Every structure is written in structure tokens, then in C-alpha cells.
Amino acid sequence: MSDPPRRTADEPAAQNRMVAIPRELPNEDRRRLLSAVGGVGAVVLAGCLDAETEPEDEPDDDDDVATYDVVFLDHDETVSITEDEVLLYPALDAGVDIPYTCEVGTCGECTARYDGDATEVITHDGNEYLDDDQVEDGWVLTCVASPEDDFELEVAHPDDE
Cβ of 54: how many Cβ atoms within 10 Å? Predict the structure, then answer.
């Protein structure tokens, strides 16, 4: 049997390579990337999801973005959500238990119910699960819905009625 090949000092050792998750990504994109990578180690290596993602020398543009209070009735939790965020991630960060799977508006797992016409208080961007009548009846997909006003929601699913 021959000896295993030896490496020289300038040849890198074969090892697992770690990939850094850029902090410039919005938290929801980082969360999706971490979900795809999987494992506790990925979360630890990626850093805190709630860490500030804007470099300190850049101006803060959040002053131009409206923020709304969304009350999750079944969890007795009020979550402040900006108009450019979807409802799901800030709610999860606040401890609201919302089941979800696809995060892109196709599976319907993350539905919630507004008491009224949901088009009055949210905008869906990518809804492929709920039909227009269901949205007008108050159904919301939290993974693709952004707030347009303060309102109250109950985490529920149309199939449960």
C-alpha cells in the first residue's frame, strides 16, 4: 500500500467550509436562508437575527415608513409592524405562534382572520392561496400581507370553520 499524499504548507487542508450569512440581508431573507441551510450551528454562525442590519454611517430611512399596531387576539400580543414588512416575521419575533411552511403565499398554513374586509387593512403581495372572496371575508396570509392600518387578527385557518 502506498502512503497517503502529503500536502505542502501552501496547500489548504481539506476541511468544512463555513459561509457567512451577510448582515445586509433583511431579517426575513436571512431567516429563509437559515431555514434552507438548517441546523442550530447555522443560526449561531449567522448571528442574531435582531441585530442592526444597517451600517452606522448610512442615514436611517425608517422615518419615512409608517408603522402600524397589529393585535393578535388569541395571543394577547400587540406587534408594531412597518408597512414594508410582512406580518409573519415580526409576529414570530414577538412570540406569536403562527404555523407556516412556504413563506411565499402558496400553502395557506399562516392564515389569520380579520373581522371585516381584509383589503381595508392589509396588502397581499404574492397571495396564491386565498381567493378574493376569502380576503374580503377577512382572511389574511401573514407571510405575504403587509399592514396599511392598525387592526386586530386571530390566528385561524379557513378549513377550520
Answer: 12
Would you give the DSSP letter of residue 159?
A: G
Q: What is the pTM of this model?
A: 0.63
What strands lie across the sheet with 139-141, from one edge to the other?
77-82, 67-72, 151-155, 111-114, 139-141
C-alpha cell at 35: 431555514
pLDDT tens column, 7-64: 455 555 444 455 555 556 566 666 666 666 655 454 444 455 544 445 455 555 556 8
Contacts of 45 (CB under 8 A, 6+ apart): 18, 20, 21
Whole-number Å distance between alpha carbons of 49 and 30 = 8
CA atoms within 13 A on the CB side of 64: 3
Residues facing residue 82 across a β-bridge: 67
114 phi, psi to nearest 5 deg: -105, 140
Cα gap 44→99, rounded to integer Å? 23
CA distance 25 to 48: 12
Count of H helices and E strands in the chain?
A: 4, 7
